[in-house]
Amino acid sequence: MTADTAIAPHGGQTLRRSTRYRTLRRFTRHRLAMFGLVVIVLLVMACAIGPSLVPFDQFQLNMRARFREPFATVHILGTDELGRDLLARLLMAGRISLTIGFAAMVIAVTVGTIVGTIAGFYGGAIGSALMRFVDAVLCFPTIFLLLTLAALVSPSILTITLIIALTAWMEVARVVQGQIRALRERDFAVAAEAMGAPDRWIMFKELLPNAVAPIVVAATLIIARGILLESYVSYLGYGIQPPVASWGNMLEKAQQYLTTAPWLALLPGLMITLAVASFNFLGDGLRDALDPRSDLT
Amino acid sequence: MSSFLTRRLIQSLILLWIVSMIGFALLHLTPGGPLSQFANTPGMSDEDLTRLAEQMGLNRPLPVQYLEWFGRLLTGDWGRSYRDQSPVLYVIGSRLGATLQLMITATLIAVIVGGFVGVVGAVRRYSFFDQFVTIGAMVALSIPTFWFGLVVIYVFSVKLGWLPPGNISPVGNESFIVFVHHLIGPSMVLGLVTTAIWSRFMRSSMLDVINQDYVRTARAKGLSERIVLVRHVLRNALLPMITIAGLEVPTLLSGALVTETVFTWPGMGRLFLDSIGYRDYPVVMGLLTFTAILVIIGNLLADILYVVADPRIRLQ
After folding, report:
1. Alpha-carbon distance B42 to B23, whole Å?
2. Distance from A198 to chain B by nearest Cα, in Å?
3. Which of A235, A238, A277 is the closest to B146 by Cβ?
4. What whole-number distance in Å separates Cα of residue B35 and Cα of residue B46?
5. N or C: chain B end with fewer CB closer than 10 Å?
6. For residue B262, which residues of chain A lie inside 8 Å, CB to CB?
7. What pLDDT is stored for residue B310 in this prediction?
8. Measured between CB atoms, which of B200, B257, B262 is closest to A144?
């Protein structure tokens, strides 16, 4: 969010050390970012290994054990309206939600970086045409655009990932375009051009490596958004379809049981908030750590 | 000033044109298509479908269909809903009010709460309050709106019984108090994200101004801290917030869709979801374009107001 969430470390002796070391130090000193990182690692591990440790299957129905409360029976986090173990479902849902967030990020960053680099490098008619297109896509409120796309494809993990990426690449394109446009005026880029390097070389070997920091920050924040958006479409019924569980679609049915079984609504929402907040914290910390100016304030 | 307005207006029109093309392409180039609702009807033969396509003008080339559609868009003829044949603009108009009520109340909450929190955070920078609110704002931005809605309903309607669990005022009882009572829950939910965003921007806007020379001058000439903060800092820090208010339109619209679903609020968002469910393409298309127009207008208005409010800006 802001560059001053954590107080940047400064002092005489750190200035002598290498930039990379100082960046790492700023990052490890950022308590929220470290919290985010730890939670993400724990969540990923839990979702990867957890399901094999839980003695219940996510699809296993048990009509005699419906609406079991958390911490009361062998079902640690309780059961849902069909008697399925909530913990098993939450962990399996986590696999899907986290995978979608991550995969959507990879696609969005790739598309956004390519569009942004081309627009920033060539400028002129191509650049402004591309950026006007980005502006136009940004005019559509995200959920409206996402739902339209989601309603038009047959819902699967792949298609949901693709449409989330389609609604998320524009911001990367904007960031990259700004960076590339500023960098290409710098001496090293002008020199490369004067030596006769081909455009593609200058774009991807000279300019882009210098724009990695803001891309990494944007990528982290896009994972957070991807998880959030997946939960929105799935909650509204156009995302991951039951019986496959995602954190979003677990909440779809929960509203009708709000009075009798509130844990069905509370737990998946907590998981989403925890995961999304962790990636946001991490992105915020990375932004502070990768910004060389934050040492000077 | 007037040339700036003209340029901004032309930019907005170009944007609107691209927006309409994207929206049109989106719905016509994807599988399903406007005929899908009839294709699933039992007893429909292929000949019937072809005749229908002809009737609806769907067998002509896409560019022609687009041009015709865009022409009608400009004249206010946005087509008719597949569901009940009423004009799209009329359908949207009948739902616009309910959504605007939510958006305006949510913005008011954001301006008051977010603004206050941001000002205090900037004045007491790095204090416990400031750090707490910084973390709180980031958590608020990570909460799925629909889940926060469920939590609000659970706490305030189910447990405490203070608020109705949703829906606009019941039929037959349309007094103002009942209306406001129903508005509280959804506005709180919709306002959460906007409040968080406002508090962050208000804080950094305050900090930008606090370090200005004229603030130091005001302090140096012996004005009380309160007068310096209110008259010199706050007044100037509020100016950039006009832009933020404009930029928040798409976030509010997206949030309204979700909030309306949770609280069964009869606004544009619910209309959009219902129309998607019925494959009612004229309404879906109309709403998509309509919300984008609202966003463009919001940004344009914010830019104009900013120039009007801040005499320091002289754009050629």
Report:
1. 30
2. 32
3. A235
4. 11
5. C
6. 255
7. 78
8. B257
Residue range B280-291, pLDDT digits in tens:
878 888 898 899
DSSP codes of every residue in A51-72 = HHHSSS-TT---GGGTTPPTTT
Residue A111 lies in a domain: yes
Distance from CA of A225 to the nearest CA of B (A): 8
ipTM of the prediction: 0.85
pTM (2 decimals)?
A: 0.85
- Over residues B173-186, the pLDDT tens digits come to 667 777 788 888 89
Q: Count of residues for chain A?
A: 297
The long-range contacts involving A16-23, CB below 8 angstroms and separated by at least 24 positions, are A19/A292, A22/A295, A23/A289, A23/A290
Task: Tell me the pLDDT band of A5, cut-offs 50, 70 and 90.
Answer: very low
A:B CB pairs within 8 Å = 151
**Number of domains chain A is built from:** 1
Chain B environment of A136 (Cβ under 8 Å): 15, 18-19, 22
Contact B150 A272 (CB under 8 A): no
Instruction: Give the alpha-carbon dihedral of B179, B180, B181, B184, to 10 degrees.
Output: 130
Residues in chain B closer than 8 A to A134 (CB atoms): none
B contacts of A137 (beta carbons < 8 Å):
22
* pLDDT band (50, 70, 90) for residue B172: low
Domain annotation covers residue A215? yes
What's the CATH code of the domain at A234?
1.10.3720.10
Q: Which of A109-113, B154-158, B171-175 has the lowest mean pLDDT?
A: B171-175
Residue A295 lies in a domain: no
Residue B116 Cα, gap to closest chain A Cα (Å) = 18
Tell me whether residue A65 is in a domain.
no
Q: What is the pLDDT of residues A195-227, one digit of tens each?
A: 888 888 888 888 888 888 889 999 999 999 999
- By residue range, what is the domain housing residue A99? 30-60+79-289
If you count them, how many residues does chain B have? 316
Q: pLDDT confidence of A4, banded at 50, 70, 90?
A: very low
